[in-house]
Amino acid sequence: MKNILVPCDFSKPAEEAFKFAVEIAKQNNGQVHVLYVVDITFLRGNPTLSHTYAFNVNFLNEIEKETEQKFQALWERYAPLTMKVRFKHVVSSLTSEVERYILENGIDLVVMGTHGQGNAAFGSNTEKVIRNATVPVLSVRTCPTKVKSIVLPVMSHKIDDRFVEAVQRLQQFFDARLDLLYINTPLYFRNDRDSLDDLEKFAADHFVKYSVHVRSDYSVEEGIAHFAYEIGADMIAMGTHGWKGLMHAVVGSITEDIVRHIPMPVWTLALK
Fold it and tell me: Are 2 and 108 in contact (CB under 8 A)?
């Protein structure tokens, strides 16, 4: 986690994400990249207005001046001036620009505030990035003071090797305890003993410094939330299937529901 990208709109959640990115970078001499996107996708379907915004020189100059000032203030407030921090602003679509920036700059981690624009049908900007990013995304409401307990929900017998390796690096970086969790629900119920045995075998094969847990609840989302509060967890780590469009609207995403409703940091990796 040496190259860290913070998509930033200079809101309070974005400031908290920047603070967390700075703390992570301090631990391993990393570099923070701040990306501000003037997202004009809301102008889609109105070519005249879109052209006016995108190519109005005065508009772009004002945006550039204002964002440079906000970035400088953010840097001076939360980061040592000796730290490597890059800033870029661009007129584009947020999700496509984040994807491009990750590829072109060798980004290892995206840290992003959980509040954003968007709508109920397609979710917030953070949820769009989670769905599309090729690297882990840390969704943050407030910068944590510590990360010593990470909840890892395990809801499938088939675990993606890339996801496991990424969680191993996450645990090692924070030197945290992993709390592996299986949630029984009325629709998907297994014997507690069998669930614990499977969790223990999986954990012993892949992790150190862990404990295993089984809980029952009305839904997986509620079970994860209740357990995280119960043990005072500092972070939740989850994989997400990058379904898009109609499939996402029909199936939904447990991970995105967790990000939307739980205030603690949520680390996610899109499973391909």
Answer: yes
Per DSSP, 41 falls in state: G
Token pair listed for 223: 């079970």
Cα separation, 201 vs 230, in Å, equals 24
Letter for the amino acid at 226? Answer: H
Q: What is the per-residue DSSP string for 181-194?
A: EEEE-SSS---HHH
Residue type, 12: K
pLDDT tens-digit series, residues 102-160: 999 999 999 999 864 444 433 477 888 888 889 999 999 999 999 999 999 987 666 77
The fold for domain 3-140 equals: Rossmann fold (3.40.50)
* Count of residues in the chain: 272
Domains of the chain: which residue ranges?
3-140, 149-264
User: What fold characterizes domain 149-264?
Assistant: Rossmann fold (3.40.50)
- Residues 37 and 49: their CA atoms lie apart, in Å, by 18
Rounded Cα distance, 75 and 238, in Å: 30
Structure tokens at 7: 């998509």
> Are the C-beta atoms of 158 and 128 separated by less than 8 Å?
no
Which secondary structure element, helix H or strand E, spans residue 153, and what is its range?
strand 149-153
SS3 135: coil
pLDDT < 50: residue spans in the chain: 48-49, 116-123, 243-252
